[in-house]
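Allow me, if you will, to draw on your knowledge of protein folds for a short while. I have a record of one protein: its chain in single-letter code and its fold written as discrete structure tokens. I remain grateful for any guidance, and I place the record below:
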Amino acid sequence: MTIDKEKLKALADEAGKTPGWYQVGSFGLSEILGKADQAFIAESTPKTIMALLAEIDRLEVDNKSLRAKLADQVAILESVQTEFKRYGDRFPDGFDGRVFRWVDDAVAAHTLERKP
């Protein structure tokens, strides 16, 4: 589902200019709508919609930032992976070969999650 946030902001802004807001039982809708629907409409004020849209915007910025940080970490892992591959099976004495598999697994897992 795609939300046209700009249109919704414009609608909420315009609706917010009208004094008052829907109250449960107003406009004679109590005969048409159930109590839950009326309560939902009453709570879905322009101010609430604007707050939700602001929260979406903030989360999108956070998401973009976290994805960039993850991409940086994956790039580091890919670099380490490349260096490990240069050694082949000739790791220095005392090196735990499991580290190589862990790096491989981490790079593979995050490569699948990348978005264009």
Observations:
- The longest helix spans residues 46-87.
